[in-house]
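SEQUENCE-TO-STRUCTURE ENTRY
===========================

Subject: a protein chain together with a token-level encoding of how that chain folds.

Sequence line: the amino acid chain in single-letter code, read from start to end.

Question of interest: how does this chain fold, as expressed in backbone structure tokens?
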Amino acid sequence: MQPAAPFARWSAVLAAGLGCLAFAVVVATFPLASMAGQLNPQIVASTLVTLAFAAVGLLVALRQPRNPMGWLLLAGS
């Protein structure tokens, strides 16, 4: 069980970092689109879907680090 411990720790750190990065990008989308005069319902819906993908990917990657689906959802968001 010892070799899996560093992997689990680093994967949790990486997942949390990617989740925070995705959240920051999603949050920054609203003011930037508003200042550019391009805030419309499509951008809002797309941003909310991206946030949902990031949240689910973060949960899966934190709880099951060897499951590639969580990492794909995080990377896709």
The mean pLDDT is 85. The chain has one domain: 4-76. DSSP finds three helices and no strands in the chain. Helices lie at 4-35, 41-63, 68-76.
